[in-house]
Fold these 4 entries.
Entry 1:
Amino acid sequence: MKRMMSWVMAATLICGTTTLMTGCKESNEQGNDELKEVRSTELIRTSQSWDGVELPDYLQGSPEIVAVKYEIPAGKKLGWHEHPVMNHGILVQGELTIIGQDGKEKVVHEGEPVVEMVNTVHHGENRGDKTVVLYMFYLSQKDIPLSVQHPEITIE
């Protein structure tokens, strides 16, 4: 029960951080219109990654929450990699194309959430003309890498 509560608290923290970031972006986009009430917008609720695959069960043990800001210049590609832990994020600038090793693609647009694949090799590309800014939130544990690189696989 204690482990379940830890994961529930971790998920709540991550969702709250995502909502806070999104709320700040929405508030800034309003320009001169002053926000009068607290606003909360649920961006995504899912048990599947972007490719439709069910997410794995939670890890057992003490959780470690990790938040990472990625900045990917226009025209750059990330190498092939996989994530051993669940993660999701918000693309706050630009457009990112995620490609699975099977060729399936997902284009994530500015302001959209994304739930990454777990234990499935994929890579990302910035095919746009401005830097991608992506905030990702990982549900991990101490000493588990956020991603495992696969330099033996080449990107065409």
Entry 2:
Amino acid sequence: MTMLSAVVWSVAILFVIISAQATSGILNNGVKWGFGSRDSSKDETVFQARAKRTVANHMESMMMFVPLALVAHLAGVSTDLAIKGAMLYVAARAIYPLTYWTGLPYARTVVWFVGVAGTAMVFFQVISAV
């Protein structure tokens, strides 16, 4: 895995979880609502609320990871630790929605920390090289 492929996979994960969030809204409110202005809607289901928080959380993590990955790529930082950090980040971000959507609180937190650890691994490799 390269830093750029980790960025691309992070975007792919975001696309999937945004699609899940949108689909859950349409399933709860109907197709007409989905194509309309969405000015009024039913109360969110538990899954809808979790999906919304998952999207927000992933975007927050991308705000830290993506710039670091791009700097690492531009600076030629491709150490084993940086690559493993990127792999951990992507793997954790792929698993995180499943743990959140299914309500696995401890697993969700552990997976979140793994993603943060992966980001930190990339960060420390970047700051030691720049």
Entry 3:
Amino acid sequence: MNMYEDAGKVTKEAMDNALKSFAAMTKGLQQITAENADFAKKTYEQQTAMMEKLVQAKTLDKSIEVQTDFAKTAYENWVSQVTKINDIYAGIAKETYKPFENTAAMASNTATKAAKETASAAEKKASASAN
């Protein structure tokens, strides 16, 4: 009966950890959504500012300078955003897996305990039959 209780505990723990994992993933995805919305807003504002500068440019050289500066800034901002999102995904992966570490350890301990009990019983039986 003890093994059944242990199995029930492992199952309950696995379900609890799955819910914790899902919550961590949901929180991370919400963070990514917020970051991307903020990035889109900033990008739109930067494009608008660039268009205003471009319209105000009096020479071809000034127009090229405005576009070059915008392209450089846009690229740097994009790389920064991608790096930030990658870090968030890495955090999501860590937080999502963390609850299952406990379940795996608990299942391993339960299996080890059951194996030891079985081996002990087999040794006792062998000793009794040898006598």
Entry 4:
Amino acid sequence: MIVIDGSNKPLGRLASEVATLLRRGYPVTVINVENVIISGTLRGVLPKFKRRYELRTLGNPIKQTPRWPRTVEGIFRKAVAGMINRKDRSKLLKRLKVFRGNVKVEGKKIGITVRVPSRYVYLKDIAKELGDKI
């Protein structure tokens, strides 16, 4: 099992690395997901997320309205799922475990080096604004 610390890593870059590892057949665990960052400011990023929750359909909203996650773990899993082929998605996501905080997990810890943007917002701040009880 591969363990990745998500602290101060951009969401998209980390999600693409995790998706690549999943496609190669490794089980992946990501810890400290609440400290994953998204480039931009809270005022610039939050309207994009809030706009998704306002989508409604004319049909039955329970059956047909798209559902978007509000928790930190759900937002990260959705980002990883978007980078995996639909045919393989359910099989590969079973190998992904996502945790808040610094959880003790057995496995090989690897470090992913990515460029950090100058302005960013933490995923926990976005999830808190969307209604996650952190």
